[in-house]
Amino acid sequence: MRLAVFGATGRTGRCVLQQALDGGHQVTAFVRDPSKLSIDHPALTVSTQPLDDPTALAAALADHDAAASALGPNTSRQARAAITTTLTRHIIKALTESGTRRFVAVSAAPVGPVPPDEPFLGRKLFIPLIKAAFAPVYADLATMEAEIRASALAWTIVRPPRLTNGRGRNSYRQASKPTCPRAIRSPAPTWPTPSWPSSKTRHNGTDHRHRLLTRQHPRGALPPPRTPSLAVEHHG
Ligand SMILES: NC(=O)c1ccc[n+]([C@@H]2O[C@H](COP(=O)([O-])OP(=O)(O)OC[C@H]3O[C@@H](n4cnc5c(N)ncnc54)[C@H](OP(=O)(O)O)[C@@H]3O)[C@@H](O)[C@H]2O)c1
């Protein structure tokens, strides 16, 4: 496949880019500063096309099969200015113009609902504290999510809890409601792999970057997760 990755110089985007290349895809990384990219690969094209010109961006996206975004604010001021929403809005427009329908965007776990099985301390203390501390970031991401949902794209929103930089396990477990409140609620996307999470999938969540482009693991073969789970929501 020919894939586009936005935010490829960021902590999450770098991992998405590496996994897309490892998966044998042709990848275009859209970056502001190519010197920030430490990855060199024959299947990698680097584009410095600015994101704020959707028509030019659409031309740069021609012939791509799918796009992934791990864009995020570099500063709290950028978050308050809703930079992720603004950039994603341009990307949605460009993807729509170019006919590239499949879009995967990284959001964050606190943007989703608090699962009913969240432990008491998480529900009453940790999650409210985190939400308050990063309120502008989550408000920006919530608006981004709403605009993605309102688009005509075939979209996937991934809400990871945190990036640990731990070793990827290349596996995840599945669970179904009510034990899996953060589950997927619609059919599986066709990208990155045909075996991407099917409906009602719960991820182990210890290292979300390695779970973004991962293979399906046989049901029940992993021990119960010890960290908050990664949530995935998608359409189309
Ligand atoms: N890191 C975590 O633990 C974690 C956990 C849950 C959710 N998330 C979410 O995942 C997303 C990515 O997080 P991250 O930690 O990987 O972020 P990050 O390391 O700060 O990377 C942000 C990326 O966005 C790009 N960017 C920022 N402003 C831009 C602009 N005006 N124009 C073009 N590109 C711009 C940056 O490009 P430059 O390199 O050029 O600045 C960089 O590639 C965020 O939405 C975050 O909320 C992260």
Compact overview of the structure:
About 30% of the residues lie in helices and about 15% in strands. The protein is built from 6 helices and 9 strands, in the order E-H-E-E-H-E-H-H-E-H-H-E-E-E-E.
List strands and helices in order, with pairings:
Blueprint (H helix, E strand, L loop, with lengths): L1 E5 L4 H12 L3 E5 L13 E4 L6 H7 L5 E4 L6 H5 L2 H16 L3 E5 L13 H14 L1 H16 L3 E6 L13 E2 L26 E2 L28 E5 L1
Parallel strand pairs: 1-2, 1-4, 2-3, 4-5, 5-6
Antiparallel strand pairs: 6-9, 7-8
This protein binds NADP nicotinamide-adenine-dinucleotide phosphate (NAP).
Structure description:
This protein has 236 residues and is α/β, with parallel strands linked by helices. It has one domain (2-235): 3-Layer(aba) Sandwich (Rossmann fold), CATH 3.40.50.720. Helices cover 30% and strands 16% of the residues. The chain is built from 6 helices and 9 strands. Strands 3-2-1-4-5-6-9 form a 7-stranded mixed beta sheet, with helices on both faces. A two-stranded antiparallel ribbon has the order 7-8. Helix 2 (54-60) packs across helix 4 (83-98) and helix 4 (83-98) packs parallel to helix 6 (135-150). The longest helix is centred in the middle third of the chain and has 16 residues, at 83-98. The model is unreliable at 175-227 (pLDDT under 50). The protein binds NADP nicotinamide-adenine-dinucleotide phosphate (NAP). NADP nicotinamide-adenine-dinucleotide phosphate binds next to helix 1, helix 4 and helix 6. NADP nicotinamide-adenine-dinucleotide phosphate (NAP) is lined by residues 7, 9-13, 32-33, 36, 51, 70-72, 74, 83-84, 87, 106, 108, 137, 141, 160, 162-163.
